[in-house]
Design a protein that fits this description.
The protein is α/β, with parallel strands linked by helices. It folds into two domains: about 1-185, Rossmann fold, CATH 3.40.50; about 200-335, Rossmann fold (3-Layer(aba) Sandwich), CATH 3.40.50. The protein is about 45% helix and about 10% strand. It contains 13 helices and ten strands. It has a four-stranded parallel beta sheet with strand order 2-1-3-5, with helices on one face. Strands 8-7-9-10 form a four-stranded parallel beta sheet, sandwiched between helices. Helix 1 links the parallel strand 1 (about 1-5) and strand 2 (about 30). The protein is globular and about 65 Å long. The N and C termini lie far apart (about 55 Å). The model is unreliable at about 180-190 (pLDDT under 50). Bound molecules: iron/sulfur cluster.
Length: about 350
């Protein structure tokens, strides 16, 4: 059996779990190709205009999986106690049925950590019946999935490169390498503290920052000009520590990760500037980015927000990026942290 797994949205954070799960069940997982123009255009035709960009891209990837026995669209309600994923995750698969190629069945299962491990296992066992697998098989698959996911999450901040790690996991699922996650080695070293280059933090959802086509290759462009720190480079303990000052706990899982990592970057003197990458129609970003912008202002940290949708032009993005880098560079190399007009014209502004 060949199961199609779209390379979008939940792929970027939870693929290791599902890859391990299906690998244990001896089910082949086929991923859609990296996003290209046609995938984007197909996605736009299948969802409403006011949907966020990552969901539109997901709709395109689902259509690209037209040669598989079934398409897997999990409903990831919650991945840790006391938080939820964004409501758009909860609406999957129903909100995307129109994108599924005719004649291909959809496989789905609900994953809700708020209900506890036992309930998850029960739900997976019911799902396993559709795959013709027994309870013992599912128990084993669940354990392997968790192992792979843990290994992947522990790699955050440990010098592993996010994309490279995901690629290695894909190789394992395709049978190209031995099924031992522990054999993976760091491929790209962590940002060196001693570097002379600018250090810019790019914060935002993994499925946007690593979505090369949808983000107009912002990450790649940025890497040519500076060392780039990402949310995935921050260890979970540091994320948690940087959430402590909030009066109220953040409700959404992704918002917690982004804000925790972003707050660390804003306070880190080694980081020269912070770019928040968001997309139109994202409810969680509308709050988190505002909060982070205020923290950046307090710390006088250069901060820029980029909001994308499918109409965003390359020229505008490049111009903004270059202007931001130029200003940060000038501030760091030539002008120090004192404005030519005095120490700070406006105490509440993070203007350069
Ligand atoms: S968190 Fe934002 S970008 Fe992600 S699915 Fe929800 S609305 Fe879309």
């Amino acid at each position: 059996m060949k199961i199609g797994f779209p390379r979008a949205l939940f792929y970027y954070d939870y693929f290791p779990f599902w890859a391990g799960f299906f690998h244990s069940l001896d089910i082949k997982v086929v991923t859609s190709p990296p996003t290209h123009r046609q995938i984007m255009e197909q996605g736009l035709k299948k969802v409403s205009d006011d949907t966020c960009l990552p969901l539109k891209i997901l709709a395109g990837h689902i259509q690209a999986l037209d040669k598989v026995d079934a398409i897997f669209l999990p409903r990831m309600v919650s991945v840790e106690a006391d938080t939820y994923n964004c409501p758009k995750f909860l609406g999957i698969p129903e909100s995307l049925f129109t994108a599924v190629p005719a004649g291909i069945p959809v496989l789905t299962v609900t994953l809700n950590w708020r209900k506890g491990r036992r309930q998850i296992l029960k739900d997976l066992q019911v799902f396993g019946l559709q795959l013709g697998k027994g309870k013992a098989d599912i128990q084993k698959a669940f354990t392997l999935g968790q192992e792979w996911q843990k290994q992947y999450q522990d790699s955050s901040g440990a010098g592993w490169d996010f994309e490279e790690t995901i690629r290695e996991i894909e190789k394992v699922t395709k049978g190209l390498t031995k099924p031992q996650m522990s054999t993976l080695t760091p491929s790209i070293p962590k940002v060196q503290d001693t570097t002379d280059r600018l250090r810019i933090a790019l914060v935002g959802h993994s499925y946007l920052t690593h979505e090369a086509y949808g983000s107009q290759n912002l990450l790649g462009r940025l890497r040519k000009k500076a060392e780039v720190d990402l949310v995935q480079h921050v260890k979970q303990e540091e994320v948690d520590t940087n959430l402590l000052g909030l009066r109220k706990k953040l409700f959404w899982n992704h918002a917690k990760q982004i804000f925790g990592a972003g707050n660390k970057f804003v306070r880190d003197p080694k980081i020269d500037g912070v770019i928040y990458l968001s997309c139109f129609g994202c409810g969680t970003d509308s709050m988190v980015q505002e909060l982070l912008a205020r923290y950046a202002r307090e710390q006088h940290k250069p901060y820029m927000m980029i909001t994308l949708d499918e109409h965003s032009g390359e020229a505008g993005l490049v111009t903004r990026l270059e202007a931001f880098i130029d200003m940060v560079e000038r501030r760091k190399v030539h002008e120090g942290y004192v404005s030519a007009y005095g120490e700070c014209l406006d105490r509440d502004s993070n203007a350069l």
